[in-house]
Design the sequence.
């Protein structure tokens, strides 16, 4: 049997998803399970079970020639070791080695968002582009850079785009610094701004939509409030658009990529509002307009939740040079 399939795995804080991906980048089978909240042992055992299940229940699984896995944290791509993963108890684990000895297949590991960008390059909005930057604002803000078709991770921890500083002495970030992109456009930052304004007596439809519970405001609710032209949410999201626009211009001036891909929960829900504003902001970039350098493409992520599975498959495909 010709071995030309890849297993892509996306380890998330709430669920682990796996997919068998063919050589054309199509997911032909998938499985998922909730991420256990206990010890590393439990997470690994859940991961093993999931892989076993997808291998056992698909007659094509014999064609799998390698496993790629995306981890939300800092991963040393050279040896597949997880350095830090804040939301899952696997920091310090050599995940590639562990899976390789368990399943007797070659394994490659990487940061989940980096792999998401790689997935977009293979099958999504980055198709045909050589140099790509991805920014993914969800609860936090992930990022990834691809230069000359390869993930830019010469040193684990590079491409932490969410922590580039956008505003001097700006709001405090989860990392301890001030004014990071994440501290303005991450969902937790948007929630913080809404709560602060409500405390000051500002009126917003979000209070009604969220049932007065403003501790966690889903992106879907932000979308609803934007559609209803809620002044508070509209004002906050205008600032989000501007901060993302500034980030895009900064990245353009550093890397001048072919395309910047924007994805993540906040973009998926509120892209209709954010994207035109970000594009307009970037188009007004005086520095590049003067130089008449080709236009940078700003695109929305196409693959959504599948990006990491497809990117993980692509990583092991690249490693095996298939
Ligand atoms: Zn930060």
Sequence:
């Amino acid at each position: 049997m010709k071995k030309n399939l890849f297993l892509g795995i996306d380890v998330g804080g709430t669920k682990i998803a796996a997919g068998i991906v063919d050589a054309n980048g199509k997911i032909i089978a998938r499985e998922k399970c909730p991420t256990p909240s206990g010890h590393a042992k439990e997470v690994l055992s859940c991961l093993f079970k999931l892989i076993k299940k997808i291998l056992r229940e698909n007659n094509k699984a014999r064609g799998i020639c390698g496993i790629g896995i995306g981890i939300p944290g800092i991963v040393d791509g050279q040896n597949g070791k997880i350095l830090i993963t804040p939301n899952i108890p696997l920091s310090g684990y050599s995940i590639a080695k562990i899976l390789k000895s368990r399943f007797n297949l070659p394994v490659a590991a990487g940061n989940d968002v980096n792999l998401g960008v790689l997935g977009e390059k293979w099958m999504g909005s980055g198709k045909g582009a050589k140099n790509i930057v991805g920014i993914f604002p969800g609860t936090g803000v992930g990022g990834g850079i691809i230069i000359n078709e390869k993930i830019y991770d010469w040193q684990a921890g590079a491409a932490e785009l969410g922590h580039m500083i956008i505003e001097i002495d700006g709001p405090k970030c989860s990392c301890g610094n001030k004014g990071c992109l994440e501290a303005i456009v991450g969902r937790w930052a948007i929630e913080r701004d809404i709560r602060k304004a409500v405390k000051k007596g500002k009126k917003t439809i979000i209070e009604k939509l969220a049932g007065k519970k403003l501790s966690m405001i889903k992106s879907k609710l932000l979308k609803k409030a934007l559609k209803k032209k809620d002044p508070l949410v509209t004002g906050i999201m205008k600032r989000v658009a501007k901060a993302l626009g500034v980030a895009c211009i900064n990245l353009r001036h550093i890397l001048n990529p072919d395309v910047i891909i924007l994805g993540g929960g906040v973009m998926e829900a509120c892209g209709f509002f954010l994207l035109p504003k970000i594009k307009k902001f970037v188009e007004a970039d005086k520095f590049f307009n003067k130089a008449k350098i080709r236009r940078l493409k700003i695109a929305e992520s196409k693959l959504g939740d599948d990006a990491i599975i497809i990117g993980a498959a692509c990583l092991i495909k690249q490693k095996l040079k298939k």
The chain has a mean pLDDT of 93.
